[in-house]
Each structure stands twice: as structure tokens, then as C-alpha cells.
Amino acid sequence: MESASLWKLFCVFAKMGAFTIGGGYAMLPLIEQEMTRRGWISEEDIQDIIVLAQSAPGILAVNMAIFTGHKIKGLKGSVVASVGAVLPSLLIILLIAMFFTEFKDNDIVRRIFQAVRPAAVALILVPAVRMARAGCHSWWTWAIAIAAMLAVAFLKVSPIWIILVTITVAVSVSLLNQKKKL
Amino acid sequence: MIDLLGQLFLTFFFIGLFNFGGGGAMLSLIQGQVVTAHGWISQEMFTDIVAISQSTPGPIGINCATYTGYEVMYGAGYGQLAGVFGSALATFAVVLPSFLVFFLIVKVFNRFHEGRTFADTMRALRPAVAGLIGAAALVLIFDARWTGFQPQLSLLTENFPDWKAWAIFAAAFVLGYSKKAGPITIILAAGVLGLLIY
Fold first, then answer.
1. Looking at the predicted structure, is the pLDDT value of residue B23 above 70?
2. Which residue of B has its CA nearest to A147?
3. Kindly report the CA angle at B109 between A55 and B9, in degrees rounded to 5?
4. Which of A65, B47, B78, B81 could lock A85 by a disulfide, CB 3.0 to 4.6 Å apart?
């Protein structure tokens, strides 16, 4: 296991912030890899953190930074990790806003991103598949995963409803089962 | 100026607090507040901001908040320095609710995490979240529209214009899933490849 100083934590999250391309979901494979490779957080714990970060409001990447930073180094860790995750965005965007407003029309930029986009989509799919394989053990867990995916992607249901309905049903079923056993 | 900064802070604080469901959902929240409700920036400007937020590194919600914060202050005639301050303030404001909610979750977690109910809920949430992440990938592949009850499904040609894009997609998935290459290596390799083949 690699030792985790606050500075190291900052650098790791700044690196991830700089390579998160295509939205917060793109940070998931990065976090998974960086945390498990350094032995800071186990694969199972990372998946639980993803579930909690996704259930909270706000920006997923920032939630992930706060949760993982806290797990590694407490409150200081969560502040340092989230500042690290946000700083590259802030600097790059300010640079563009102040000097290169024509950035998106640049031909070199366009060609690079044309190839990066499909790769980024594939990298979002990686944690989805990994998580489904770890979390789906029965027909009803697969049903939840597939129903959630189709409802959000094609019926345009807001993810918050998926989370709220899942929590409500799970809590009720669990309480009912526990009552039956008494 | 203090007045505008105060409004900027509150606006982005509430956007952070009420955003569920990723950067895409946040873009429409920001648009609703900044363009429609406050009229701080024009629709054209916002469209540019979205395009740049999506094609630069970093979480889209953060990119968009940062850029909007800059433009609101700069556009109001306070100059570039005020713009930089506006962008830092908007970013701070949009992140702050995450911290507050986090401590709430930690409290709940510490109280309940050894109980049966919590374990059962996590068991159900894991596949649901796997589905949500899968959906985030699907919306970048397919363009699904509804005209009434008539679904229209097509490929998103912006992201997948040709077979080369699919080849990159397949290679990235195999390398990423098998852990043969890390995500950063894959992104960098795709970028270099883009310069060569497009």
C-alpha cells in the first residue's frame, strides 16, 4: 500500500480531474483504478462509495472526491481531494474564457476529441459492467439494473426517481421480512 | 457588484443542492436559472459554454459553473479579474451543498450501517446505480426521442460518425475492462489516434 499524504491525495485527484472527459461518470473508472492500484480503498468499498455518491445531490465527481478523500484522510482529505478534482477544470476553463474563445472551432481540438469521445463512452461502460457483475446475483437484481438503465436512457426518467423508488421499496421489503421473522 | 456576487453564489448553491442525475441534468438547471430566470447571459453564449464544457477535461457541471461564473461578472462589465473571482465563487457555491449533504449521509451511515435494513437497501441500490451508469453511456451512443408515444431511436452520429469511432470504442472497452491499460493511457492514445486518422 502506498502512503497517502494530503499532497499525494491532491495530486492524484488533480490528475483525475484533468483526465475526466465527458462528464462525471468518466471519473469512475479513473477513481476505481487509482484507489485500488495504490491500495487506498478496496474494490468493494469503492463500489459502495459510488452507490452513496450517486444517491446524493450535487456533482458526481465532486461527491466521489469528498467520499473517497474522507475515507482516506478524514475531513482534510475530503477538502483536499475535492479541490484537486475541481482545480484543473477551473484553470482550463478560465484560460479558454479569457484567451481562446474559439477553442471549440479549432481543427486540431476537433480531431482529437472526435477519437476521444467514443473511448470516453467505452470507459463509462466499464464501471457499469463491473458493478453489474459484482452487484447482480439474482433475477431481481438484474431486473433492477436493466429497468433503471432503460428507464433513464430511453424513457428520460430522472435518476433521482430511480434512487428514491429503489430506497423506498428496499426499505419496505426489508422491514416486512424482518417483521415476518419475529 | 457585491449584490451580483451574492446572487451568483445563491443561484449556484441551489443548483448544487437540487441537482440529481449528473452533469446533463445540471446543464438544464443552470440554463433555467442563468439564461431564463436571471437573463445574465444570452442563449447563444450559453450554447457555446455547453459545447466548451463538454469538450474540455473535468466534470461538465463544474466546467459549466466555472465558465458561467466568469461570463456573468465579465459580461456585467466588471472586467477580467472580477470574472476570475466570479468563476471561483460559482464553483465553490456549486460544490458546497455536496459537503453539507455528505455529513448528513455520514451521520445516517454511522447510525444505520450495521442494521439489516441498510444492508438490504445497499443490495438493491447497487444494481440500480449500475443501471444509471449504463444509462449515462447509452445516452452518449443513442439519440432517443419521443413524439407523443412514438419512439425514435437513432445513433448519435456526433460521437459515433463512422466505423473508426466504433473500433476505438471496442478497443477502449476491452483494454479498460481487462485492465490492460489505465483510463488515462486510453484517453491519451485515443487523442493521438484522432490526430492521425481524422
1. no
2. B131
3. 55
4. A65
Please give the Cα distance from B86 to A52 (Å, whole number).
Answer: 30
Q: What letter does residue B74 receive in the DSSP assignment?
A: I
Quick check: B133 and A111 CB within 8 A? no
Q: Which of B52, B63, B90 is nearest to A61 (CA)?
A: B63
**What does the pLDDT read at residue B24?**
65
Asked if A182 has any chain B CB less than 8 Å from its own CB, the reply is no
**Would you tell me how many other CB atoms lie within 10 Å of the CB of residue B164?**
16
- Within 8 A of B135 by CB-CB distance, chain A residues are 148-153, 159
Residue-wise pLDDT for A17-72, tens only, equals 998 887 778 888 899 899 999 999 998 899 889 988 888 888 889 999 999 999 99
Name which of A140-144, B52-56, B71-75, B77-81 the model is least confident about. B52-56
Treating both helix axes as pointing N-terminal to C-terminal, what angle do B183-197 and B163-177 enclose, rounded to 10 degrees?
160
Instruction: Round to whole Å and give the CA distance between B78 and B48.
Output: 21
Summarize chain B as % helix, strand, coil (round to 5): 80, 5, 15
The reply to whether A85 and A113 lie within a common domain is: yes
Q: Whose grid coordinates read 470574472?
A: B83
Name B144's bridge partners.
B153
**In 3D, which of B25, B116, B128 has the Cα closest to residue A55?**
B128
Asked if pLDDT for residue B136 goes beyond 80, the answer is yes
Predicted ipTM > 0.90: no
A112 and A28 in a common domain: yes
Q: Total structural domains in chain A?
A: 2
Compute the nearest-CA separation of B135 from chain A (Å): 5
Is residue A86 domain-shared with residue A15, that is, in the same domain?
A: yes
Q: What's the whole-number mean pLDDT along residues B67-86? A: 92
A176 at interface of B, judged by CB pairs closer than 8 A: no
Structural domain including A154 reads 137-182
pLDDT, one tens digit per residue, over A148-180 is 999 988 888 888 888 889 999 999 999 999 888
Query: Please, what is the average pLDDT of chain A?
Result: 89
Q: For chain B, what is the domain count? A: 3
